[in-house]
Design goal:
290 residues; 12 helices; mainly alpha
């Protein structure tokens, strides 16, 4: 792995993790699904226009279109939609921790559903990840956190797992920025249905909302997704996913620093255990040196 890939991975992890804090600010002042649908509409249009200016085409292969639709629906509509709704009642740090278990779910799905062989280090990583989640959830439930919000985040991370398994089909064959823009437009289209049906346009306009919305649209929304696709194309899904072990640290740290969210010692221990489990799972996937 070269230094450019390492820097790309670190930047992606930081941007991805910061999305939970900015989302928590947005849902404080605006209806979550409407805000998210608008965010993806803006991000998607910006991505498509820039891609078109760079000479990229929307004439994709059947495999690419399938990946675009699956990624747009599962990640942008379901995963982020459910997380935005959930963060009306649960802390951003908890949502980040739940979402960070995605690499563990990917490995578990490969093992249970597809019969992928998992090395002993990977098995230990999965066990550690489960223990870390149980530790954090036990502490949070005792403190009275909203159970329905947790359930929404769990369903969301399962959707993110499906989207991740589909990302290779979406990113192969070039036109990366165009694909990023199109999958955001797909997500926006699906989100407008529940947004217009279930929500009332009730917005408290202030500088916090404007800054959070602009940041979420351009950085975690557009830039982080583009960097992720480029990173996967550069070093492959397995190596790229290793950087997810940083997400629990960054997610909790950013929420604590910017939102003042309380982090208990059980949270800290659980984050370290989950991060170690994610790292162990990803390292177990690395090819054995000959």
């Amino acid at each position: 792995m070269d230094i450019k890939a390492v820097l790309m991975g670190l930047v992606f992890a930081l941007m991805w993790s910061s999305a939970f804090t900015s989302a928590r600010v947005i849902v404080e002042y605006a209806p979550p699904l409407t805000a998210l649908a608008l965010r993806f509409l803006i991000s998607g249009l910006i991505g498509v226009v820039i891609a078109w200016a760079l000479g990229q085409s929307a004439r994709l292969s059947r495999t690419q279109w399938l990946g675009v639709v699956i990624f747009g629906v599962c990640q942008n509509s379901l995963y982020l939609g459910l997380n935005f709704v959930a963060m009306q009642t649960i802390p951003a740090s908890l949502a980040a921790i739940i979402a960070s278990t995605m690499p563990l779910l990917v490995a578990l799905t490969g093992w249970v559903v597809f019969g992928t062989r998992v090395r002993p280090l990977g098995v230990l990583g999965l066990i550690a990840g489960v223990l870390g989640v149980v530790l954090i959830m036990g502490a949070r439930l005792q403190s009275g956190v909203d159970v329905f919000g947790i359930l929404l985040c769990v369903i969301g991370v399962i959707s993110l797992t499906i989207a991740t398994l589909a990302v290779l089909g979406a990113s192969s064959g070039g036109n990366v920025l165009m694909i990023v823009g199109l999958q955001m437009l797909v997500g926006s289209a699906f989100l407008w249905i529940p947004a217009l049906s279930l929500e009332v346009w009730d917005v408290t306009w202030n500088w916090q909302l404007v800054v959070a919305f602009a940041y979420t649209t351009l950085v975690p929304g557009l830039a982080a997704t583009l960097v992720w696709f480029l990173l996967v194309g550069r070093i492959g899904m397995v190596k790229a996913s290793t950087f997810h072990f940083l997400n629990p640290f960054f997610g909790v740290a950013i929420a604590a620093a910017l939102l003042g969210e309380r982090v208990g010692w059980l949270d800290i221990v659980g984050v370290f255990i989950i991060a170690g489990g994610i790292l162990a799972v990803q390292l177990s996937k690395q090819p054995t040196p000959k």
